[in-house]
Amino acid sequence: MSEETDFFDKIIDEKTVEKISEDYPVLSDEEKDRIFSLVERKLNIDKVENSDHSEDVSGVEEYIRPRWMNIISIAASAAVVFGGIGSSVCLMRNMKPGISDTPSPEVVDETETSSAETPIVSVQTSTAAGKNNDPVQKTTKAVEDQLAEKAVKTIENKPHSNAVVAVPLNNNESAAEQLNDIVTDADISESENIEPQIIVRADVPVTTTVVNTDYEIIQTTAVQIADENEKLIEVAESIIADYDGIRNIEDVNLPVIEGSTINVTHQMVTPSGDGVYNRLLEYGQVDPDVYSDMETLKEHFYSVMCSSMTETDLFGDEFFSGSSPEGIVVDRAYSYITYDGKLYRLMGNEKHELEPLPYENAVVYNVSENAFTAKKNYIDLTDGSTVEVHFGVVRDYKANKWSLLKVSLD
Amino acid sequence: MQVTDKELRARMKKSPAEARRALFDEYCNYVYAIVINKLRNCCSREDVEECVSDVFLDFFKGFDNLGKHNEELKGFIGVIAKRRAIDMYRRMCKGMGRTVSIDDDDLDEIASSENVEHEAEKTERNELLLEKVHELGEPDSTIIIQQYYYNRTTLEIGKAISMTAAAVQKRSIRARKRLRSMLTEIGVSI
């Protein structure tokens, strides 16, 4: 340790320091001036700095927000709010339990129309998927096109077998079972041998419609609204009234000229199919005052009946007297033929004369979008019995009206 | 001459610059002694002068807010000088990367108020030392004080007391020998 530190490097108390400063002043005048000028300069700098910040500031600049900004803000806010609400609703609907992510073929709609435009068979199966809260797996198997075609043909070959399926709503599995039973037993019994069959398993209300408009089979299940029902009844009454005007055409009850009958040979195949035998048919000339020729007859007939319908057994060909009348050969027992330009009708095939019961309206049922069935009671004037006549009515798009497709007696 | 706050305010009203100068002349040596007592071994001469100027700057800036008590300003300036010196000491030590050891004497200075016995011993020793320096007589006492307390060079001391640096050096050596023998006689070792 140096000698300097031996003296004053130790801690010196304030009293000693004060005494040293008084007894031994060290600063010369030059040092005092230098230090004081330093003090003055710092003091002036501080004053300048303080004076720079001493300016008063009052008032603020008013910011005027453009009005169109408000409109845009409101629109954007509304878009965000409604978007959020919409998204929430959409999510809530989609997040309901029991709805599978994979889309299931819940609606099977197969329609086949023949080249003759007549047979229309539609099999519709619809499930109300939105009401399904049961996690049971839904399985719907549609018949392949080819198999469905066969099944449809099976239905077509049974012209008078009606299969009306009206399954009440809120009947889940039983509805599907009913559907299978009815379709299988009544209409497509032969299709049991065809695999796969129509298998419909539904856990929800099922509405099934089987419609065969070819042979009066108009089957549908729908909720009939009163107004629509009344309109259809009016349509049905109108069509039935028109049909009563031409009923003698189909029933072969037109008046004939007495003594004008001719005999026509009808060649028929034997039941065994290995031979042909002939039978004589008697035709009488239709009173020309009623129907002069075949064209007038057809025109009147199709004014009521559906234009798409072809009555192959009703209207025959035109024949001429080349030799004797017995030389005329027909392949079918036509109800009407033309002989030497005159209209003849088949004799001995007259039907019972029916008279509609008064004060009794037709009843409409099996209503679908394009077809319905009406039934009306008639009285048989021959024996006085009541006969229920069914009228199959379809929407004739060619004629743009409702037309009669088929009439059948109960 | 002691200056009270009342007197200084009266002078400030007449001439602030003169008042500040008068106050500075009155207490600059006192402030310098306090500052250099703390910064002697860590700062240069310029740093010490900078610290002294900051002490007076703080005083002048805070004088307006000082209460009117008509008391001497020496104590107030002394407190400012001591605190400023400590701040400078810490700042310089931080810049030099020095840390204060808990065994360092400076730490004891900071906490001196808590050790009255040690403080009393130091005061007594310093009084004895200063008394013996006085007994050396002029110009030896001045040479010892300026050389070992104010860290002045012999050239600066010689210029202050109108002597050559060599003469100052010789007198300093003799003065230290005499001072050591005087302190030994009274039982104080340095």
Q: Layout of helices and strands, plus pairs?
A:
The complex is a heterodimer of chains A (410) and B (190).
Chain A: H1 3-8, H2 14-23, H3 29-52, H4 67-94, E1 108-113, E2 120-127, E3 139-141, H5 145-156, H6 173-187, E4 199-201, E5 206-212, H7 226-250, E6 262-269, E7 276-285, H8 294-302, E8 315-319, E9 329-330, E10 336-339, E11 342-346, E12 354-356, E13 363-365, E14 371-380, E15 386-396, E16 401-409
Parallel strand pairs in A: 6-9, 8-10
Antiparallel strand pairs in A: 1-2, 2-5, 3-4, 6-7, 7-11, 10-11, 12-14, 13-14, 14-15, 15-16
Chain B: H1 5-14, H2 16-39, H3 45-63, H4 74-95, H5 105-110, H6 116-136, H7 140-148, H8 154-161, H9 165-185
Helix pairs in contact in B: 1-2, 2-3, 2-4, 3-4, 6-7, 6-9, 7-9, 8-9
CATH architecture of the domain at 220-251 and 353-409 in chain A: Roll
* Proportion of residues in helical segments of chain A: 25-40%
CATH-defined superfamily of the largest domain in chain B: RNA polymerase sigma factor, region 2, helix turn helix motif
- Uncertain stretches of chain B: none
At the third CATH level, what is the topology name of the largest domain in chain B? Rna Polymerase Sigma Factor, Chain: A
Give the integer mean of the pLDDT values of chain A: 69
Order of helices and strands of chain A: HHHHEEEHHEEHEEHEEEEEEEEE
**Total separate domains of chain B:** 2
Multimeric state of these chains? heterodimer
Largest sheet of chain B: none
> What is the H/E string of chain B?
HHHHHHHHH
Q: Report the principal-axis shape of chain B.
A: globular
Domain RNA polymerase sigma-70 region (chain B): 24-91
Keywords (chain B): DNA-binding, Sigma factor, Transcription, Transcription regulation
GO molecular function (chain B): DNA binding; sigma factor activity
Organism (chain B): Ruminococcus flavefaciens
